[in-house]
Amino acid sequence: MNILVLGGTQFSGRSFVEQACEAGHELTILHRSPEAPGLPDAVRHLVGDRDPKDPNDKGDGLGAIKALLDSGESFDAVVDMCGYTPRVVRASCELLKDHTDLYLFVSTISVYPTSPDAQPNEEWSWEQLNQLEDPTVEEITGETYGGLKVLCEQVVHEVFPDNHVIPRPSIIAGPNDPTDRVTWWTRALATQDAVIIPEPPVGLAQFVDSRDLAAFFLKCLSEKLTGTYNCAGPQPGLTLHQFINRTHAALDSTAKLLEAPASWFEEHDIKPYRDIPTWINDDVMSMYRVDYSKAVAVGLQNRPLEDTMRDVRAWDIERGEPELKAGMSFDRLQELVAAQA
Predict the structure, then answer these.
(1) Which one, 14, 58, 75, 254, has least CB within 10 Å?
(2) 218 and 279 co-located in one domain
(3) pLDDT tens string for the chain (341 positions)?
């Protein structure tokens, strides 16, 4: 296949490009950075901003694509990894609508409103998804992200009514993770003498490995699967304590796991997600109850949790263990360990 990727230099996009090239497909990627180290040599690079307004003065990315189309080129599939606002997504869709057989738009489970016990699935109507008070807003924040993705999905439905595929990934984990949410756990359990964790019951954990997600994208394109698919893992009903204990075992960790009640964390101003990644409040637990059986039925395959966590740890060591972007500092963690003793 001749595949155009919008984005594709980071994380799950990078995984997709690597797997697609390895499978023998021809890849053209549009990205803003003039440098994209580590990608396969066979990739054709277009450097520019896909935003028609080009606010960052990164070059006319859509113009570069248009030049290819004007020369008679077309694409078997387009993979849109970096569409966040409906105006920008519409510009790409309109440009490519007569020049591709399938448009894959990467959305998010953040399109679903959160609640304590709902189990979001793909049959929810547009009205049940997150809505923006101001549909013209383009600032991407924690409050607008999900609603903007809903509007982007609607654009894709409109322009590619019969030939679109929309994966909605949960939290993504794996090597090259720019967020460090899961990486925090692997480093904490591998390097610290003790880690304080919330005592049970404390809810669920859910994530999808970036490489499994990329493989699912490629399967959708190869088999011309269409529709919307929640993409999560590594297995239904995984609890936070199973996630921690299985990671602890997978890494042969000697760290002591010290349990504390939720009231203790509140007393020390330790908040779920902000300070302890993966742990979330009960009132948003639907985020980890996403039904992804539809994707599994057509071919999403989740590798064992242990494989992901070992690979994340190896990658973190290889990159030199820089300062983490998520979770509390380990100095703070050890202060808390001392306070609990």
Answers:
(1) 254
(2) no
(3) 999 999 988 899 999 999 999 999 999 999 988 777 788 989 999 999 999 886 556 678 999 999 999 999 999 999 999 999 999 999 999 999 999 999 999 999 999 999 999 999 999 999 999 999 999 999 999 999 999 999 999 999 999 999 999 999 999 999 999 999 999 999 999 999 999 999 998 999 999 999 999 999 999 999 999 999 999 999 999 999 999 999 999 999 999 999 999 999 999 999 999 999 999 999 999 999 999 999 999 999 999 999 999 999 999 999 999 999 999 999 999 999 998 87
Query: What secondary structure letter does DSSP report for 285?
Result: G
Spell out the residues 6+ positions from residue 204 whose beta carbon is closer than 8 angstroms to its own: 237, 238, 239, 240, 285, 288, 289
Q: Helices 181-191 and 305-318 sit at what angle, rounded to 10 degrees?
A: 80
Q: Do 10 and 114 share a domain, yes or no?
A: yes
The verdict on 252 and 200 lying in the same domain is: yes
Structural domain boundaries enclosing 37: 2-173+208-231
The strand pairing partners of 208, in sequence order, are: 172
Question: pTM for this one?
Answer: 0.96
Residue 295 belongs to some domain of the structure? no
Please report the DSSP string for 30-94 in residue order: EESSS--TTS-TTPEEEESBSSTT-TT---BHHHHHHHHHHTT--BSEEEES---SHHHHHHHHH
Residue 163 Cα distances to 25, 83, 182, 311, 331, angstroms: 20, 17, 34, 35, 51
Last residue of a domain, one of 216, 231, 246: 231
Tell me phi and psi for residue 2, to 5 degrees. -100, 110
Residue 51 near residue 88, CB atoms below 8 Å: yes
The one-letter amino acid code at 11 reads F
